[in-house]
Amino acid sequence: MQGKRVLNWLGSNAEALIALLIAVVAGVLGIMGVAPAQLIDAATLLTIAALALALLRDRWRTDAEPRAREALMKAESALHEFPSHVSRINTLESVIGDTRIALGEASMVRILVGQEIDRALSETRSNAREWHFKGGTATFVRAVVIPECVRNARRNRRVLSMRLEVLDPRNEKLCERYANYFRRIVDDPNEDEQSWTGEGTQLEIFATILAACWWKQRYPPLEIHVALSAHMSIFRWDMTQDCLIVTERGPRFPAMMFKEGRFYYDYWRNELRESFAQAFPLALHLAPQLSDEPTVEETRELFSRLGVDLPDAYSDEHVGEVIKQAIRAANPYA
C-alpha cells in the first residue's frame, strides 16, 4: 500500500524530479570540470524546460479544479434527486399498470340489446344456484325467475338461494315516486309505464312478498329472503353465481352484463350485499301455511304476521288481485 502511494507521488512530480536530477548532475560535472561548457548550458536549458512543464501542469490543475468541483457538485445533486425520479417512475409504471388492468376489465363489460337480454337472462336461470335481485317490484322475478329457477333446482335436487330487495310498500310516497318517475320519462301513450300508479306499485310488491312465501312452502330447499328498501333505484339488478345483469326498463333498452371473476362483478356483489343489509328484513318463517290457492284470510294473516299490514282500504277484491299476481303472474315482457 505504501509502495503504491510512493509510485503515485513520483508520477505526479516527475517533471520536478527530472529537473532536479539534471541540475544536480550538471552542477557536479561543472564543478569537477569534466563536462564541456556547451553541455552545461544545454543541461541548464533542459532543467528550465522541465521546471516550466511542471509549473504549467500545476497551473492547469489549479485552473481545472473549480470546474471539476462544480461538475462533482452537479453529479452529487443529481444523485440526491435520483431516488425521487425513480419513485416517480415507479408511480407512473403503477398508474400505467392499473390503467391497463382497468381497460382490460372494461372490455369484459358486455352491452346487451334486444333479444340478447332475454337470452342472457334465460341462460343464467338455467343453472342458477343463487339469485340476488334489487329493484322496484320484482314483477319479472316473481313471474318468471322464481318459477323457472325452482323448477330447475327441483329437477337437479339442489338448494336454491334467493335474495330480493324491493321497495317498501308501506311507504306510499316512495311507491308513488317510483311510478311517477317511469311514467314521466315515456312519451308514447301505448307504453306500459303510462299506466303505472303508486297503488299499482304497492300491489305488485305485496304480490312479490306473497309469492316468496308461497314458493318457499312449495319447495323447502328454497332459501329465500326479502327486504324492503326505503330508497328508489331506476336500475334492476339480477345477479347469479356466474354473472350480473343490470337493466333499466326491461329488454327494450340496453343492459350491462358483468361476468364472475372480474373485479366489477365483485364490487357490485359487495354493493348489493351491503344494500340488502341496510333494508328492512321480513321474517318469512313466520308465514302461516298457505294453500295451493291462498285464501283472502290466509293472505291477510300472512302480512299481519310479517308486520306489513295491507292498507285498510284493501277490499277482498284487492287481496284477490294480490293472490292472482303472486301465483299466476304473467311475464311483463312477453
Describe the protein's topology.
Layout: H1 2-12, H2 14-32, H3 37-106, E1 110-112, H4 115-126, E2 130-134, H5 139-156, E3 160-167, H6 172-184, H7 198-218, E4 222-229, E5 236-239, E6 243-247, E7 255-259, H8 263-278, E8 280-281, H9 296-305, H10 316-327
Parallel strand pairs: 2-3, 3-4
Antiparallel strand pairs: 1-7, 2-5, 4-8, 5-6, 6-7
Helix pairs in contact: 2-3, 5-7, 6-7, 7-10
User: What is the average of the pLDDT values?
Assistant: 82
For the largest beta-sheet, the strand count, sense and barrel status come to:
8 strands, mixed
Run of helices and strands: HHHEHEHEHHEEEEHEHH
What's the CATH class label of the largest domain?
Answer: Alpha Beta
CATH architecture name of the largest domain = 2-Layer Sandwich
Q: What is the CA-based Rg, rounded? A: 46 Å
Number of strands: 8
The helicity comes to 55-70%
User: Shape, please?
Assistant: elongated
Classify the secondary structure makeup into a structural class. alpha+beta
User: How large a portion of the residues is in β-strands, by DSSP E?
Assistant: 5-15%
What is the fold named in CATH at topology level of the largest domain?
Answer: Endonuclease, Chain A
- Biggest sheet strand order reads 1-7-6-5-2-3-4-8
Which runs of at least 5 residues are low in confidence (pLDDT < 50)? none
- State the separation between the terminal residues, measured CA to CA: 97 Å
Helical stretch count?
10
Keywords: Membrane, Transmembrane, Transmembrane helix
